[in-house]
Amino acid sequence: MSTLSLAVRDSSTMLRRNLLHARRYPSLTLNLLLTPVMMLLLFVYVFGDVMSAGMGGADRAAYVAYVVPGILMMTVGGTVVGTAVSVSNDMTEGIIARFRTMAIHRPSILVGHVVGSVLQCVMSVVLVGAVAVAIGFRATDATALEWLGAFGLTALIAFALTWIAVGMGLVSPNAEAASNNALPLVVLPLISSAFVPIDAMPGWFQPIAEYQPFTPAIETLRGLLLGTEIGHNGWIAIAWCVGLTALGYLWSKSVFNRDPA
Length: 261
Fold this sequence. Notes:
This protein is mostly helical and 261 residues long. It has twelve helices and no strands. The longest helix is centred in the first third of the chain and has 33 residues, at 60-92. It is a multi-pass membrane protein. InterPro entries: ABC2_TM (IPR013525), ABC2_TM_bact-type (IPR047817), ABC_2_transport (IPR000412), Nod_factor_ABC_transporter (IPR051784).
């Protein structure tokens, strides 16, 4: 078999392994999925009227439309935390050491984690999106091309953040540390434009919300689904994705290829 055939075969095997783990131990995935659902319900039904009133008197339906793209990006950030935990478990429980002794394509171990995580992210976004539709979210004006763009952006963000999460998992001494190290992927959406416009934030806080990867991704997704102005956010979001993917890949590869102590 050629090197490419071996890589594809071994990566497929590792992908099946990770999907089986997710199916047999769904508690982590469910816990990470419940967080964005609870945030969505909280901000719509508890804070919705107050938040919409602070945005120029918009009604709750308008606030639902505003907040859902941010919740979807939060879903991606939360889901990849499970990837960091899974990678850390593999590193600390000895299975990686065993894989190193086998005649397999070594990068396939990480590829299986990454592809499996992206698939879980997409499935989680679909489930949270279904909840959003159930409580009134509509994107009827979005064209098929815009829906495709929104799906592609979500997958690209998931791919980039997954590589970062893999690196966090590789350098963590245990699953608890991996979960803590990946916490910024959950916190950053909270301090973005997910819940209120940046203009409504205090002046000193606006740069924190603006110059981070989630805000341009949220604004781009909002523009694709709701028809709002995207501006340069689309290109900025793609640039963030490319940069984070390259950083996460090189970091993960470097740590994974180190000789075990």
